[in-house]
Write a structure and sequence with these properties.
Bound molecules: ligand BES, zinc ion
Structural class: alpha/beta
Number of domains: 2
Number of helices: 13
Radius of gyration: 24 Å
Helix content: 25-40%
Number of strands: 19
Shape: elongated
Strand content: 15-25%
Largest sheet: 8 strands, mixed
Distance between the termini: 37 Å
CATH superfamily of the largest domain: Zn peptidases
């Protein structure tokens, strides 16, 4: 855990003072004499002109000062540099068991302060559920010197704490094994969130799904003894913008074996993360509710295990989706789009105006954009812009992909209205499949997080495992929608 103490002045207890973050453009108030400032200036010049080491510690006027260099990472935005820098600084202090660190942030913009707090918080995460000896993270206190901006900084800190708790929730759920978190387990987690945040919740089990014709979930889920669930959460704030209702749908395959079209064994275990979309969805509605954002949100988690079993769906099987269209299952490993069809229909039935779905949907997207950039699709350019901007504010990169209709025919089959695989443009074809389940009057965007949800090496400020991708951008998007219209 990271401890933040926000005050107008320094207590004098800190063993380490952080005066600047390297890049000249984001330097903060030099609380130094003229002589020392010249020295600092010289160091900054040096840092500007070359790639510097990780952290540079210098002694000036008997004060131990630290300069944090974030310039090493190529391609990060200035805000993300700050997050990285703060993260490194926190790791540095944890490792050396420094109890108290001063940070002079009074000259930073609100956005910059938020980035620093996020970076510090990321350093406090570790996933210990399965460790016999949990890793002890030294609790460093960060004393934030805010001068006359104490109230503002405290508000930012509270916001970051709520967002980070949600991100941590998503990451913990994603990192949990498939057997320990089947669909019913995820539904239970959703119930906990609903209780915590005062959300209305509806959970449908296998019997209800069959009865109501949510056949995507039934078809994918029937091969496992861990039966599917459909969870719908409603956030209805007293004060909400009129005419805006955000729907979020998350893919929640609690484990993806591929079904009878079995996946190769190498790396199959990573499919514990095939419920990342639903984890992010749950985490986001939690934060939106706790932050009391003025926008209606309906979140839908489509939960199933894609397993091999006596009752498993066979290639060639045809089912009728919730919206009446018939689908032939050509490949049982293209299961995400089948359950999402139910999620999209469910969200649409709530008359949402804006609809986001998040899914670890295709290996094709992962190969196209890798772990650093999330590819997304949208049927509305204004929404696409809002996604990119919300991503920027969250230090999550989004890149728009085309909903190219030319590939639409590849989903045709003589026996049914459509099949579940098509052209070699795998990510685009998957998006075109989903589009069939979104009413045209809804502004819709599909985020394929297959490459960005889970990493098998440390990346930026996230360790091996779940990144929590999407949570912050969803919160930011809800903020944007809450602000952009009449209340
Ligand atoms: N869950 C996978 C996609 C995936 C792959 C996520 C790698 C994360 C990392 C999805 O269900 C899947 O298997 N998709 C197939 C679709 C294909 C059969 C058309 C794929 O991408 O190979
Ligand atoms: Zn699959
Ligand atoms: Zn999958």
């Amino acid at each position: 855990m990271m401890k933040l103490k926000i005050d107008s002045a320094a207590s004098g207890k800190a063993a380490l003072e952080v005066l600047f973050f390297v890049k000249k453009s984001v330097q903060f108030s030099p609380v130094l004499s003229g002589k020392a400032s010249a020295e600092v200036e010289r160091i900054l010049e040096k840092i500007e002109s070359e790639v510097y080491g990780d952290l540079e510690i210098v002694e000036i006027e008997n004060r131990k000062l630290i300069f944090v260099n974030a310039a090493k990472e190529r391609g990060l935005s200035p805000l993300d540099h700050l997050r990285m820098a703060a993260y490194r600084l926190a790791k540095y202090a944890q490792k050396r068991q420094i109890e108290c660190v001063n940070l002079f942030l009074a000259d930073a913009s609100a956005e910059q302060v938020k980035s620093v707090f996020h970076g510090l918080a990321y350093a406090g995460y570790s996933f210990d559920r399965y460790k016999s000896k949990p890793k002890k993270i030294f609790a460093v206190t960060f004393e934030i010197v805010a001068m006359e901006r104490v109230k503002e900084f405290k508000k930012i800190a509270a916001e970051v704490e709520t967002e980070q708790a949600s991100i941590t929730l998503a990451r913990n759920l994603i990192n949990t094994s498939g057997s320990d978190l089947p669909p019913a387990g995820m539904a239970l987690e959703a119930e906990k969130v609903a209780k915590e945040c005062g959300l209305k919740i509806k959970i449908r089990d296998m019997k209800a799904l069959v009865k109501e014709g949510f056949n995507g979930l039934v078809t994918v889920g029937k091969g496992s003894k861990n039966e599917p669930r459909l969870v719908t959460l409603e956030y209805r704030p007293v004060k909400a913008v009129k005419g805006v209702h955000l729907g979020i749908v998350g893919k929640g395959i609690t484990f993806d074996t591929g079904g009878l079209c079995l996946k190769p064994q190498n790396g199959m275990w990573e499919m514990i993360s095939d419920m990342s979309g639903s984890a992010a969805t749950l985490a986001a509605i939690r934060a939106v509710a706790l932050l009391k954002l003025p926008v209606q949100v309906t979140a839908v988690l489509v939960l199933a295990e894609n397993a091999i079993g006596a009752g498993a769906v066979l290639p060639g099987d045809i089912f009728k989706a919730k919206n009446g269209k018939t689908v032939m299952v050509d490949n049982t490993d293209a299961e995400g789009r089948l359950i999402l069809s139910d999620g999209l229909s469910e969200a649409a039935s709530y008359k949402v105006t804006h609809l986001i779905d998040l899914a670890t949907l295709t290996g094709a997207m992962s190969r196209a954009l890798g772990y650093a950039v999330t590819g997304f699709f949208a049927n509305d350019e204004k929404l696409a812009e809002a996604v990119i901007e919300s991503g920027k504010a969250s230090c999550e990169k989004f890149w728009q992909m085309p909903l190219e209709e030319e590939y639409g025919d590849s989903l045709k089959t003589p026996f049914a209205d459509m099949k579940n695989i098509g052209s070699e443009a795998g990510a685009v074809t998957a998006a075109l499949f989903l589009k069939e389940f979104v009413p045209e009057n809804i502004k819709w965007s599909h985020w394929d997080i297959a490459g960005t949800a889970f990493v098998t090496k440390e990346w930026k400020y996230t360790a091996f495992g779940a990144t929590g991708i999407g949570v912050q951008t969803l919160i930011e998007l809800a903020r944007h929608l809450g602000n952009s219209h009449d209340k």
